[in-house]
Amino acid sequence: MAETRTEALHRNAEGLDIQAPEAILVSLADAQIEAAKAVRNAIPAIAKAAEIIAGRLSGGGKLAYAAAGSSGLMALADALELPGTFGIRRDRIAILIAGGDEALRTLAGGPEDDTEAAAAAVANAGIGVGDCLIALSASGATPYAVRAIEEAASQGAATIGIGNNRDSALLRQAETAILLETPPEVIAGSTRMGAGTAQKIALNMLSTLTAVHLGHVHDGYMVNLLADNIKLRDRAARIVAAISGRDRDEAARLLEKSGGAVKTAILLAAGADSADVAEKLLEGTGQRLRPALSAIEGSKGRTASVLIKTEPEKGQQGD
Predict the structure, then answer these.
(1) Could you tell me the end-to-end alpha-carbon distance of the chain, in angstroms, rounded to an integer?
(2) Ordered mean pLDDT values, 10 residues apiece, the chain (319 residues)
């Protein structure tokens, strides 16, 4: 079997174990930077994937992540942060990791070969028509990830594959393939390093662009965050203050009036008569704050019922 790129020896690896500590760290750091640059070539595929995910989520579907080992940890980190950062409901996100909950304690290698478990995980999560599954594998050949994407596709779900080796089984099976062609690892085959870094960056970009399409980002602010601790409640107030031009105390008062909803509080500051009016206005604009603000600004003196009927501009993808 031909050696894959992720298993090859890095050009700076020879004699690594007898080099000075600082020299070793320079090689490791430079390799991470080089791996990160590989994500740029995947931007068109990431953009396409984000549009697909946003369409499925806005249509009421679920987003699932399927992976094993280090790729599973990258998927887990991205998936778990979506509710708090962008307000995507937790019951709309499924995380399928080879080995299940036990993997979070041991990360054993054996479960990544369990294709039956992958198929069962997809079925148990109810992934099918209207949903989307992202499968990750640095090698692109991990049986668990490949089987998960096959099963999801057979059930009618949209499928996205993220891998680090060209022409791999995972990328061939995926409806949308994201190739992160990272260089060989300084420690050959240790894909938690360069390949994992590139996967983490790609997932960050993918989920953030998805949130932009869903209307959860406005001028770089996370306007749909779930403020469930002191830090995030303070951040929510600062976001409302920054966008509305109100002071911090007034922003906090508006947040209390809106039940903690940042977008609703901003619309109240802009002149919406009530939280209900603001929320109905957001429904009419597909949860996008900018056209909702424009509707209020352009309808000063008109009735609330006129505001509620305002619809988003055709073809608008996000803020």
Answers:
(1) 48
(2) 65 78 90 93 98 97 96 94 93 94 79 93 97 96 96 98 95 97 83 90 97 95 89 93 94 92 94 93 93 84 44 42
- Is 112 designated active site? yes
**Among candidate residues 259, 292, 293, the one with its CA nearest the CA of residue 275:** 259
Which of 7, 34, 51, 81 is an active site residue? 81
* Structure token pair of residue 44: 């068109």
* pTM given for the model: 0.87
Helices (H), the chain: 21-37, 43-58, 69-86, 103-106, 115-124, 143-154, 169-173, 194-213, 230-244, 248-257, 262-270, 275-284, 289-297, 304-308
Location of structure tokens 């942060």: 81
Neighbours of 235 (CB within 10 A): 16
Instruction: Extract the tokens encoding 59.
Output: 């249509």
Which residues, in sequence order, are CB contacts of 116 under 8 Å at separation 6+? Answer: none
- 22 catalytic, yes or no? no
